[in-house]
Amino acid sequence: MSGDRYIEKLVILDHEKHIISYLFEEPLQFPATGLYGKQELESIAPGKTLLTWISDAESFDEDLKDTMYGLIQLCIAGLVELLEKRQIGVSN
């Protein structure tokens, strides 16, 4: 799945609540249908933000559960890296 491209359709963009929601356009490169996601940011303390990232599908091949978990972990690690670089840039 590494290197695959996906087309996402923005469903919700709420600047006030800091929420985005999206659907993955089909066909997908793996056996799933109705795949969607939601990300929400919430300030929890000065300089600290909680990211809640939810995804689900109408149907999903359970054999891919570990693969998808790994993919999501890579996505989160990439996001953390970008945020850390931005924080370093802001503090310099």
UniProtKB/TrEMBL annotation:
Gene3D superfamilies: 3.30.530.20
SUPFAM superfamilies reported in the protein's UniProt record: Bet v1-like (SSF55961)
Name of the molecule in the record: Uncharacterized protein
Taxonomic placement: Eukaryota, Fungi, Dikarya, Ascomycota, Pezizomycotina
